[in-house]
Amino acid sequence: MSLETGFERVSMPLEAPFTIARGTQTEAENVVVRVADDAGTTGVGGAAPSAHYGETAATVEAVLPALLDAVERVGDPHALHAIEAELRAVVNGNPAARAAVSIAVHDLAAKRLGVPLYRLWGLDPSDAPMTSFTIGLDETERVREKAADAVAAGYSVLKVKLGTDRDRELIDAVRDAAPDARLRVDANEAWTPKEAVEKSAWLAGRDVEFVEQPVPAENPEGLRYVYERSALPIAADESCVTAADVPAIADRCDIANLKLMKTGGLLEARRVIAAARAHGLAVMCGCMIESNASIAAAAQLAPLLDYADLDGSLLLAEDPYEGVDLADGEIRLADRDRAGTGARPASE
User: Which segments constitute the Mandelate racemase/muconate lactonizing enzyme C-terminal domain (predicted)?
Assistant: First the structure.
């Protein structure tokens, strides 16, 4: 069997500027990978690089030729473990680039078998949790409007970005606009340990479910301090990159948050889930601002999760790919019953 590979960069404007504690984003630059067999069946995957992890669209494009050469050398899209071992041997870093290739190869393998990826893994689509919808940082009244709009659109689980001197005001505005919504908050490493403990107390009074990454990943003892004193469960995001990080966070958080763009591939994502379960942690899968070329693949993991934060494509003004139906926040894996990850060009 021979495989043909290729990739292209796609720039996608956001529906509205998206701000977190580290900065503001107005467009998403993804790189879409394609891997086709000699019968013309094509697998699609997407890279959504993050400068926080040392990647840009340019670095993804720079390493993809070597990664795709490795896929062509293996030559069998079903040899998933061999392919991912080759990818890591070629490029040990650059997880978003490796993730795009991993997704494309998984998509192709499942398409060749004529089954959705979740079915290839033996998962029950009815076990998928709801995905949250993220409310980025903004002026207080704008945050209130965003929350009201999200609820009106049917999203009942909201994740609120914090990390400002107006955090209490922002949460009050969201809770006022969405009194019945399930709320989660994400500080993106912006708080000190003592600040995080203090804020957890009044966040608990506003019926928030949990706090994501309250302190910098570079401060593991600070994370432990918060975990031992927090009024709310703690989720580790930036502190949990690959399965090797799980033992170190197991006594510092309640929830391990994985992202395909951190793990470098779907096999490693499943290893993170297994490691987290072995250490008694709950599991969430998050995302960057991504096209459905990669979000659809992350959604296939949903039956293995306790929490999902897979709204990356929902924040785009227009996505060149469609994927799993996420209307109202429900991850409807079985509705379209497509082989592979479910990602398809929107033009089809």
Answer: 140-233
pLDDT band of 341, cuts 50, 70, 90: very high
Output DSSP code: residue 116. B
Q: pLDDT band at 22, cuts 50/70/90? A: confident
Distance, CA of 91 to CA of 67 (rounded, Å) = 7
Structure confidence at residue 347 (pLDDT)? 80
Domain segments of the chain as ranges: 4-114, 119-345
> In terms of pTM, does the model score above 0.85?
yes
How far, in Å, are 3, 49, 61, 165 from residue 56 at the CA level? Answer: 26, 5, 9, 30
Percent of residues in the chain assigned helix, strand, coil, to nearest 5: 40, 20, 35
DSSP state string for 173-185: HHHHH-TTSEEEE
Q: Could you count the other beta carbons within 10 Å of the beta carbon of residue 13?
A: 11
- Among the CATH numbers 3.40.50.300, 3.30.230.10, 3.20.20.120, 3.40.50.20, which is that of 119-345? 3.20.20.120
Largest CA distance in the chain: 60
62, 7 in Cβ contact below 8 A? no
Burial (CB count <10 Å: 0-12, 13-18, 19+), residue 156 = middle
Distance of alpha carbon 44 from alpha carbon 46, whole angstroms: 7
* Phi/psi of residue 122, nearest 5 degrees: 75, 30
Alpha-carbon separation of residue 152 from 78, 134, 142, 148, 180 (angstroms):
43, 14, 15, 6, 12
The CATH number of 4-114 is which of 3.30.460.80, 3.30.390.10, 3.30.200.210, 3.90.180.10? 3.30.390.10
Among residues of the chain, what percentage have pLDDT more than 90? 96
pLDDT tens-place string over residues 48-88:
999 999 999 999 999 999 999 999 999 999 999 999 999 99
Quick: pLDDT tens for 81-91. Answer: 999 999 999 99
Q: Are 5 and 35 in contact (CB under 8 A)?
A: yes
